Amino acid sequence: MSKELLKEKEVALSDGRIVKVRKPKLRDIRIHFSEPNLEERQIAIVGTLAQMTVDELDALDYDDFILLKDTAESFLSSTGAVA
To answer: Of 20, 33, 60, 80, which is most buried by a Cβ count within 10 Å?
Structure first.
């Protein structure tokens, strides 16, 4: 299957959990890109695409958050957008 056809990607966290990060919809971009603070925008987008709350993200090891953020950004990079 080509990379462009993927609708979601699985990320293995350090605690063994597998989190699915879905491909963003236009509504995700429209909602979150109005946030002017880059860090808050990244957290909001990752939370939405990974279906995790801010509290759940806050409880992650930073390395795990970066894995999720990089996965979300991999969907956005083809559009020129940055999470």
So the answer is: 60
The pLDDT tens digits of the residues spanning 27-81 come to: 988 888 888 898 999 999 999 999 999 999 999 999 999 999 999 999 877 655 5
| Lookup: tokens for 12 | 């293995």
Per the CB < 8 A criterion, the answer to whether 17 and 44 are in contact is: no
Q: Write down the domain spans for the chain.
A: 17-79
pLDDT at 64: 98
Whether 20 contacts 9, CB under 8 Å = yes
Give how far Cα 37 sits from Cα of 10, 32, 34, 64, 78, Å: 27, 10, 9, 21, 22
